[in-house]
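Journal club prep, shared notes

We agreed each person brings one worked example of a sequence with its structure written out as tokens. Mine is methylmalonate-semialdehyde dehydrogenase (CoA acylating). I'm keeping it raw so we can talk through how to read the token line rather than staring at a rendered picture. Sequence first:
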Amino acid sequence: MTQTSTQDTTVPTIKLLIQGEWVESTATEYRHVVNPATQQVLARVPLATRAEVDAAVAAAQKAFATWRDTPIGARMRIMLKYQELIRANSKRIAAILTAEQGKTLSDAEGDIFRGLEVVEHAASIGTLQQGGFAENVAAGVDTYTLQQPLGVCVGITPFNFPAMIPLWMFPMAIVCGNTFVLKPSEQDPMSTMELVKLAIEAGVPPGVLNVVHGAKDVVDALCTHPDVKAVSFVGSTAVGTHVYNLASAHGKRVQSMMGAKNHAVVLPDAHKEQTLNALVGASFGAAGQRCMATSVAVLVGAAREWVPDLIERARGLKVGAGAEPGTDVGPVVSAAARQRILGLIEAGVREGATLALDGREVSVPGYPDGNFIGPTVFTDVTTDMSIYTQEIFGPVLVVIGVDTLDEAIALVNRNPFGNGTGVFTQSGAAARKFQNEIDVGQVGINIPIPVPVPYFSFTGSRGSKLGDLGPYGKQVVQFYTQTKTVTARWFDDSTVNDGVNTTIALR
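Then the structure, token by token:
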């Protein structure tokens, strides 16, 4: 919900962070942060002005001059303090996250924890950012590399993980010696801002971390600003493609993690109980609003007989407000998101899929206005249907049956997205064949959501990713640094003068 005046002062206004100061925006347009379970307006978010974006980048540019030379040990100690503060405040922030985003309290705590793991990894920067050295590559000549920070970096984050994904970005960027401008999702920035406050409390200096809010105009201003060196994005395919193309055209280094259609391939020899539990959890957890959610189950051979059991488990999930005990599936983030998901469910019915479990009319006592959709399962789905070709981003699972593992692999590889996939089997040979032949960046073997721990990099591929380097892990250190190679030779009075050398070879 966007309004065009500044008159609504009945709810708190989210501030900007510029040069270490919490700034009241001079914006004339605001967006409401709405509790998706109740429609209560929690706060209003300013759509920052171009002058405010410029001020945030200028603050980061100014801070870079000194921050880049801050000893690496000092940067590490800030991250150590930061992870301590996040741990101490995680339950409080999780409650805010649930109120503004809708996910269950336990899932909100998981959102924070997965981001915290990246902060902990950032504290290892002393070994992650090391260069290389070779002595005597020629007579008296040494060559070494330096991993130096880029400058001002930008992060643009989505609504579905308002804790984890910002924590993927700015801690690694600033611990590498860069400065940062963060643009959180305008739908649920409150928990993100709590994490930013803790970063400042941990000792991040003024200007090293800045925050602006807004929509397309602010994104475009950041992507085209001459002082911005790198842009990291997570979100939809349409916006991610725009960000990548615009920022790249203006000379920025860009990583853009985008949409997905994640398949779980189930072989008939899989452990039935664990596989069904994994499918249901990965499909309907967070109301399906995960870029790594399992949205397609490919049942091979006799595994197709498991559909009734799958539906029975999905039917048993409790739909409710995220803050209510026992809730398994919370509301989707907005009324608009709910309507879009309902439209895709209706399209699936029109196109001939069988609606085996219908979550459209779910009722949640005490929450008549919530954006609820119950677990929904389609069977008899073909790959030309809208519910297969589009990312639904809701609690909807489509089921496709095939006869062989080869057919399943071919089906997954034909899909344009490449974020994540999984195979469920007790056969090592089948698992090895799958991991070798599948053309998807992240593979789970009896794991439904194969998001790697921070020591490894998030490696989505094909239509799910633009840019060569992924977030966190070793790849993100490469993304946030520039390799400089130095070749050096030193002389003293005893060095023999061997004359002028006009060849390319070193001697």
